């Protein structure tokens, strides 16, 4: 092997490919290795990964239960998707797994299509995410307004908290309805079956989750709270046999290879078809297109928002397209091992950063930590009370809502933005997140167009001013437009042009301050030019910027309209207008333009 060949081979082993791949796969990992990966960095990543793995263990189970599937599927998601996205994604510190935001869209899918439908929809969403990353759509997250994200996030938090009331109070509800107000009705109808013991377990867990961080931040609060509450509950149940507290072991039973396990089976995720024992048909895939789109949309939004927050905490920069591709690959692989839909988890990512993570290796260690816990400590998980997990999710919902920030935005933001926020919040609670984002983005876009149209102004120079430096010849009127001439402002800006300078023989249309013109603006301009031709007036279009100039050249305005002339600058336009105007008859003095005009 030649020296150059050996050099290229070594470069390929270090993660520095000679040819840029079509898909941005493993961007974050390659960047981390290219910076030099030392033993000290490995130690920091291992420690951070273990800490995040401990935090992810109860959360993954609680979120899977909230979705409506056995808890081990949440753990399988953290194990498989967490590792795949870390190795293939575009953020160095992102931790991926099941998240609270997904509960509101995954629960109805499980209710309608079952676990196999959920896994298949997650697989299809993964394929969509890979396509989004390949098409370089990662930057589109920047176009979702803050009131929209704040509104639907707070709405999701309220729905999640409502879902946990069943286990917090120990209510006997066979199946919760899909509609929010129907859920409230079912909870109210079952209120007589509330258990004081379950409420006590939830209250104790919530108190420990809130108070333990004041004692120590080294040991994660969820681990301490769930261990202490589980031990205390087990002792009380043994001391008082009549006391009943629902646990993971009493609620869930899994049969694997003919053997029944209480709680979660002490086995690693095993491969299998996402759609179960039956075959995957085109009809089934067509039914799941809409759920898959919802999963892909929310997954992309939440993961990229989490990556942006991670960048702010670390001063680094993630690759949004690489993150979408990595997230898509994780969601493609996870369903084959029983994993549900996954996305970037903001709280776990922040914990990862605070614990000292320096590369995606930390997220891989987090997945391995969850895997070891599943294999080794599965029998102990059966003793965790359902009310304790519900209390954990109530706290997650509270933190997710960020009520203080929500109230602050409502108090200080413009009324239109507040309306968008409250609309998204209400639609998320009453309908779902997809409807809320769709309506919210449309409302925000309309609001943006209204504000942009207000920036576009026009003025007519028809009076003399002794202090001005540019002279408008008699018989000429200057009509100046400043701002974008797009469909939101075109009619307003061009409406007065036809009536400008009633006595003038030549209209100078000054467009030097128009940065962009769209099709609607061009149509409005041509309509005004037609009216001016009918009024027997000549028009000189002055000083358009490059983009409007290219559009004018494509439309051949000078050829199409014999009364229209083009000039590079306003000075040239005024000179041309002076030559075009007929001998002025009257005593009107020249008009002077402000020196700052276009």
What are the main properties of this structure?
Transcription Regulator spoIIAA; two-stranded antiparallel sheet; 2 domains; alpha/beta; 598 residues; 24 helices; five-stranded mixed β-sheet; single chain
Kindly describe this structure:
This protein is an alpha/beta fold. The protein folds into two domains: 22-445, no CATH class; 457-593, Transcription Regulator spoIIAA. It contains 24 helices and eleven strands. It has helices at 3-13, 27-34, 39-67, 72-88, 103-134, 146-168, 180-189, 196-215, 221-239, 248-251, 282-287, 289-314, 320-333, 346-354, 361-381, 386-401, 403-412, 415-430, 433-455, 490-495, 519-534, 546-555, 557-560, 570-580, and strands spanning 96-97, 253-256, 259-262, 343-344, 457-461, 470-472, 476-482, 506-513, 538-542, 564-567, 591-593. It has a five-stranded mixed beta sheet with strand order 5-7-8-9-10, with helices on both faces. A two-stranded antiparallel ribbon has the order 1-4. Helix 6 packs antiparallel against helix 16 (386-401). The longest helix has 32 residues, at 103-134.
Unreliable residue stretches? 5-21, 463-467, 584-589
Fraction in helix: 55-70%
Mean pLDDT: 86
Biggest sheet: strands, sense, closure? Answer: 5 strands, mixed
Radius of gyration (CA) equals 32 Å
- The coarse overall form would be elongated
Instruction: Supply the helix-strand structural class.
Output: alpha/beta
Number of domains: 2
């Amino acid at each position: 092997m030649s020296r150059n060949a050996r050099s290229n081979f070594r470069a390929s082993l270090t993660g520095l490919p000679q040819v840029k791949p079509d898909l941005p796969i493993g961007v974050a990992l390659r960047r981390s290795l290219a910076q030099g990966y030392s033993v000290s960095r490995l130690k920091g990543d291992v420690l951070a990964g273990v800490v995040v793995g401990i935090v992810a263990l109860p959360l993954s189970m609680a979120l899977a239960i909230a979705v409506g599937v056995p808890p081990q599927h949440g753990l399988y998601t953290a194990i498989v998707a967490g590792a795949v996205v870390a190795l293939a994604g575009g953020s160095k510190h992102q931790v991926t797994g099941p998240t609270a935001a997904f509960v509101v869209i995954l629960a109805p899918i499980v209710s309608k299509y079952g676990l196999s439908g959920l896994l298949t929809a997650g697989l299809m969403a993964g394929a969509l995410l890979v396509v989004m990353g390949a098409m370089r759509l990662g930057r589109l997250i920047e176009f979702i307004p803050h009131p929209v994200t704040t509104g639907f996030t707070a709405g999701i938090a309220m729905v999640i908290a409502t879902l946990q009331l069943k286990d917090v109070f120990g209510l006997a509800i066979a199946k919760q309805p899909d509609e929010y107000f129907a859920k409230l009705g079912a909870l109210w109808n079952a209120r007589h079956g509330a258990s004081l013991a379950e409420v006590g377990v939830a209250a104790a867990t919530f108190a420990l989750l809130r108070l333990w961080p004041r004692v120590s931040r080294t040991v994660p609060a969820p681990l301490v709270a769930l261990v202490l509450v589980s031990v205390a509950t087990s002792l009380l149940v043994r001391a008082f046999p009549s006391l009943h507290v629902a646990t993971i072991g009493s609620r869930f039973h899994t049969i694997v290879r003919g053997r029944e396990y209480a709680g979660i089976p002490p086995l690693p995720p095993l491969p299998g078809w996402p759609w179960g024992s039956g075959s995957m048909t085109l009809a089934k895939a067509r039914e799941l297109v809409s759920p898959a789109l919802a999963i892909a949309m929310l997954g992309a939004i939440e993961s990229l928002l989490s990556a942006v927050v991670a960048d702010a905490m670390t001063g680094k920069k993630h690759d949004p397209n690489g993150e979408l591709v990595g997230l898509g690959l994780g969601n493609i692989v996870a369903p084959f091992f029983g994993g549900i839909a996954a996305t970037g988890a903001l709280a776990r990512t922040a914990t990862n950063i605070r614990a000292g993570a320096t590369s995606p290796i930390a997220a891989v260690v987090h997945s391995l930590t969850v895997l070891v816990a599943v294999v080794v400590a599965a029998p102990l998980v059966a003793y965790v009370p359902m009310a304790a997990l519900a209390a954990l999710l109530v706290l997650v919902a509270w933190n997710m809502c960020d009520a203080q920030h929500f109230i602050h935005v409502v108090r200080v933001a413009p009324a239109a933005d507040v309306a968008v926020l409250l609309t998204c919040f209400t639609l998320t609670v009453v309908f779902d997140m997809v409807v809320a984002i769709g309506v919210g983005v449309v409302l925000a876009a309309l609001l943006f167009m209204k504000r942009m149209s207000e920036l576009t102004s026009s003025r007519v120079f028809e009076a003399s001013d002794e202090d001005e430096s540019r002279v408008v010849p008699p018989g000429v009127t200057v009509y100046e437009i400043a701002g974008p001439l797009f469909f939101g402002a075109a009619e307003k800006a061009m409406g007065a042009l036809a009536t400008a300078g009633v006595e003038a023989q030549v209209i100078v249309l000054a467009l030097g301050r128009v940065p962009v013109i769209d099709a609607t603006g061009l149509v409005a301009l041509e309509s005004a030019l037609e009216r001016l031709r009918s009024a027997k007036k000549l028009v000189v279009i002055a000083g358009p910027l490059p983009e409007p100039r290219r559009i004018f050249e494509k439309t051949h305005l000078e050829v199409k309209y014999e009364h229209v002339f083009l000039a590079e600058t306003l000075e040239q336009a005024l000179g041309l207008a002076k030559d075009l105007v007929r001998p002025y008859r009257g005593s009107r003095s020249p008009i002077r333009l402000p020196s700052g005009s276009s």
